[in-house]
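Q: Please design a sequence for this.
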């Protein structure tokens, strides 16, 4: 009697085990479960990328941070009378010193940057030495527009302010030629600083009482990652060159002319005050304008030729697609070949394809992304190929499956390398893959056996 009950139950389990739809459903569930380790690997890549950024920050802190050159700006103190009332309602007048700021009429900057790569362990950071020459001139004040009495200007208290974002990178003590006199620059730590870090010179303009002055000075500075400038002149021209083949031009303004060759880059900007977010002169109440406004900043960023973490992350984002396509390909292989692959074998193959990305990350930190991709892909394809050959006991389907995996990994590699055509190439490739799978699925009989057939007792079950 027990045999008569067990036989139909066994047939039911056999039907579930051999049903193509049930198997395909389980493969889909397994693919979704593999999203968990895939997301953990992406977190690992982000952690390593964050560590690289920390190392770059540490190197920059010891060498010098990214540099932003601001100025020069002419600052003129002037006296003004302020009327106040005391508690008794009596009016009092007090003298207050305020400031008037004047931007250059013409600002020309030329310079050369010499970047180099510093290594700290397995991480790299780009630093540079730069020599800049700054020339230009200040124009006349428009006192009527400001409503200032010329007699109230303290010409002997004038100063010229130059902003440098990281003074630690200053390699020389610049001398500023203003008019016919030369002044030695010094740091300004007063509360009324115009920029975050200021170099100032203190010319005595009481003899001429004029702001129509030419200026020039040289800067020998070092920094890391970026070299930026601020568009402060009524007419601003900047030209920078250097032996770096991977510059990225940043900020609001792109170079008017730029050349990038194997020997380096050469870029020049030319801008008028119409697209500058500052007036030519303003009063002290608007002095914070330059501190918070980045709309006039532009420059060049020295990026590393290969960012292995960015490419590894892009590759890892395709992990679920590769795993799904591999599982479906293996499913078609076992259905068309008549050989069954246990679900446990699918789990092991999925684990191998997940570990692939940790191999890619580890090797890319040592030998670069391209070679690491080749090593990880060849190792994974060979491992899975030999495993399929051992399961199916047939070299031909194992060879075909290895070729399919090779096509998948090559397809992803090409997409990662492309930029403008990545979407087009990826869409066409996926369309072709879906078309092939539709063709293969048309050759499979998806009609499951009726349950009644599975419940039919065998001839020797004793139920006939």
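A: Design:
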């Amino acid at each position: 009697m027990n045999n008569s009950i067990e036989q139909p139950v066994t047939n039911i389990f056999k039907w579930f085990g051999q049903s193509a739809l049930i198997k395909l459903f389980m493969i889909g569930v397994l693919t979704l479960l593999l999203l968990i380790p895939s997301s953990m690997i992406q977190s690992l890549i982000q952690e390593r990328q964050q560590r690289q950024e920390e190392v770059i920050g540490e190197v920059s802190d010891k060498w010098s941070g990214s540099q932003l050159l601001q100025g020069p700006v002419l600052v003129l103190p002037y006296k003004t009378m302020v009327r106040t009332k005391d508690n008794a309602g009596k009016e009092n007048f007090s003298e207050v010193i305020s400031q008037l700021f004047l931007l250059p009429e013409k600002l020309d900057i030329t310079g050369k940057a010499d970047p180099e790569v510093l290594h700290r362990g397995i991480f790299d950071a780009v630093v540079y030495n730069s020599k800049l020459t700054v020339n230009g001139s200040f124009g006349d004040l428009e006192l009527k527009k400001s409503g200032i009495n010329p007699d109230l200007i303290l010409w002997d208290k004038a100063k010229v302010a130059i902003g440098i974002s990281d003074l630690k990178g200053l390699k020389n003590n610049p001398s500023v030629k203003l008019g016919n006199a030369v002044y030695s620059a010094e740091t300004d730590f007063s509360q009324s600083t115009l920029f975050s870090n200021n170099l100032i010179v203190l010319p005595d303009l009481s003899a001429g009482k004029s702001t129509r002055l030419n200026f020039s000075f040289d800067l020998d500075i070092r920094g890391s990652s970026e070299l930026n400038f601020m568009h402060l002149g009524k007419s601003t021209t900047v030209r920078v060159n250097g032996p770096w083949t991977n510059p990225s031009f940043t900020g609001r303004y792109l170079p008017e002319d730029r050349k990038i060759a194997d020997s380096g880059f050469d870029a020049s900007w030319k801008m008028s005050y119409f697209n500058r977010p500052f007036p030519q002169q303003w009063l002290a109440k608007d002095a914070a304008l330059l501190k918070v406004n980045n709309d006039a900043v532009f420059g060049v960023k020295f990026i590393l030729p290969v960012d292995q973490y960015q490419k590894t992350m892009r590759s890892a984002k395709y992990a679920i697609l590769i795993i799904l396509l591999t599982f479906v390909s293996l499913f078609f292989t076992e259905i068309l070949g008549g050989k069954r692959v246990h679900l446990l074998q699918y789990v092991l193959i999925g684990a191998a394809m997940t570990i692939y990305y940790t191999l890619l990350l580890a090797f890319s930190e040592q030998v670069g992304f391209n070679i690491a991709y080749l090593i990880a892909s060849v190792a994974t394809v060979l491992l899975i190929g030999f495993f399929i050959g051992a399961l199916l006991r047939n070299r031909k389907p194992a060879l075909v499956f290895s070729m399919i995996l090779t096509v998948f990994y090559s397809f992803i590699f090409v997409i990662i390398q492309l930029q403008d055509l990545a979407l087009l190439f990826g869409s066409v490739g996926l369309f072709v893959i879906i078309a092939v799978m539709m063709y293969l699925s048309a050759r499979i009989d998806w009609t499951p056996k009726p349950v009644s057939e599975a419940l039919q007792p065998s001839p020797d079950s004793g139920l006939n």
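Q: Thanks. Anything notable?
A: The chain is about 40% helix and 30% strand. Residues 107 and 136 are 4 Å apart (CA to CA).
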